[in-house]
Amino acid sequence: MTLYHAFETIVVPLIVLACAVHVAGRYMPRTRERAKASLAATLGGAAAPGWRGWLARRLSPTQAAGCATGCDTNSGCSSCGSNTSGSSGGSGSRADDEQVIRFVRKT
Hints:
The chain is an all-alpha fold. The chain has helices at residues 3-27, 29-42, 50-59. Residues 76-99 are annotated as: Disordered.
């Protein structure tokens, strides 16, 4: 086995793994945030000394930055119309939560 084949055997699976993690994080944001929070807690939290504290602070969840964070309530993440928390109060009708999708043929 040459050095090129050894390098290829190591690098290609790492690239595929990185792409898989990126796609999973993009389509499962809540799971990504929970995994990051648990990893930060495992490292000792933000009060940990040295590189562990720095990494824990980087991984710890920050305030909700919008609907992409996967928040469940109206407490600061109502920046888009896809918030389906259902805490609208009095009426509670399901029709208020639905969004209409229209398909338009381009000519």
